[in-house]
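In the current project phase, our protein records have gained a structure token line. A sample record follows, to show the layout:
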Amino acid sequence: RHCTDVICCVIFIVVILGYIALGIVAWVHGDPRKVIHPTDSYGQFCGQKDTLNENKTILFYFNILKCASPVVLINLQCPTTQLCVSKCPDRFATYIDVQASYRYKPDQWNYFKQFCKPGFNNPRKSVAQVLRDEDCPSMIIPSRPFLKRCFPDFSTKNGVLTVANQTTFKDGRGKTRNVTDLREAANGINNVLDARSVGMKIFEDYAISWYWILIGLFIAMVVSLLFLVLLRFTAGVLFWIFIFGVIGIIGYGIWHCYWEYDHLKGIPGSDLTVYDIGFQTDFRVYLQLRQTWLAFMVILCVVEVIIILMLIFLRNRIRIAIALLKEGSRAIGYIMSTLFYPIVTFILIAICISYWAVTAVFLATSGEPVYKVMADQTLCKYANLTCDPETFNTTNVTKLCPGAQCTFAFYGGESLYHKYIFIFQLANAFVFLWLVNFAIALGQCTLAGAFASYYWASRKPADIPLWPLFSSFGRAIRYHTGSLAFGALILAIVQLIRVILEYLDHKLKGTQNCFTRFLLCCLKCCFWCLERFLKFINRNAYIMIAIYGKNFCTSAREAFFLLMRNVVRVAVLDKVTDFLLFLGKILVAGGVGVLAFFFFTQRIPVFAQEAPTLNYYWVPLLTVIIGSYLVAHGFFSVYAMCVDTLFLCFCEDLERNDGSTAKPYFMSASLHRILGKKELSPKKA
């Protein structure tokens, strides 16, 4: 063994160090409080300690009617003044009414002014000037805090939309408006608020059923292990039962089509052709024609004949595939530690995701507050231009654009660092993809090395090395980091291009340029196919690296041509393996899911008293089903890697050895018997 793809290894290490440096720089310049806390129109955080807003944790909108939906309120900037308040309004009130009665009802003014700009306490100022300068909101509406923002307190009474049990309100400009004017915002907000109520109930269900969920996942793990062990004895039986079941079902379909064809004989109109009746929206019309059933019968006969011929001509290859599946089960039985290696891959990927997410947040929150003019773009030429909130009211913008506001837009800056924030985000995403693919590659190479040591052992299990999984992991890290990084780099580049294409497609969805959309669709399809192909090549290249210790390009080339020389065996093994593993996943998830259903619905008398009382029994049920499927997928991914490794070793064994005393085969006795004496005889020079 020697180090492979050293240059790529050095580049990979340098990139990791640069990635760490990028995270440090982002941490220095970024401020995640900008995401956690809402920001008012002055760029100040609501609820920030040691500031005037320390006790004002909620964001209040002066005129929520200007906001289209909750999505706009949360993610974008609503074109109205936004203020940090300690609590949301709990009553209807307008500035006109409060100003008219402030002398003899000072309590109303004291309550209303807490929603005005800080320091404003001049109820004698004319209403027109107050609304022009937006010193105070024209109205306040009963609201409740959600996501640290004040949303109108919507409710439905007898099917009628209301706010605090009222259907109308004064808009503060002399008009009485209906609550339905807020419908666009209400439709989204009600759903979100209902979701919050459902979310609390779901949280309660998890709190009282979490240990039963863990028990269900443990049962799924045990069943997955048993399935892998039993594949050694049942792989062939399961496959042939399925194949003959399909043949039987198609045979029944042929008989049923013939019966329908014969039954329609003599019925008026049944001898018409499809061409005679033309296109019909009711497809049941076609079922009244003999021609339809004749066509179905011919198609099913063709499919039946194809399946039978494939079984006849591919029977030996199918037997080899089943033997390899059994051999894979036997290999895992000798190297049980491989079943738990996916936990290592999961931890590595979780670290990558966490670092990428934190870095992305800090990069996104880098910079100083940037303010822009919020106004009607069709009427104001200054709309979306940067402005200074301190001097905005002294400029001509307010005169030329009535109602324009200088509000906080986003965080940015003019320094070199801030100008290249987008490039840094792109680099963050690219390195993230590279690291994730490297973690997956490391797992595949480690498992391949462990299973290859099993195959090439002359006497199994006596000649299997001690701690094969740890030895394989050490070899992969020590000698082949560069090769694994090289394969991961190629895949990461293609995935980044796919991400960019998805972004462009999202941005161009509203365009009417059919050619552009068609071109993007073709590019997305091509790069999806390329990514699938590269994953296949990389997977087999890592197996060859684990076996022979060569560099990535050499291993990929040798693996590709080896597979092409055995392309029929590859196709058969791939489909047989996919079917059996899919069957196993469905069996595990479905079996544990049925058991969980009967338990959580208290239909098992023995455990009826133990089952928790839930708001929604489907919450833990779905968690158990999805979790069981993922657990089974984790175990079976190891099994799939085992079968792929043994297959490549098997193909190499056939090409390098001839079964003679000088060059004996390393394959198992069952594979010897399937290949037969002719293939095992010594090759002639």
Summary: The chain has a mean pLDDT of 81.
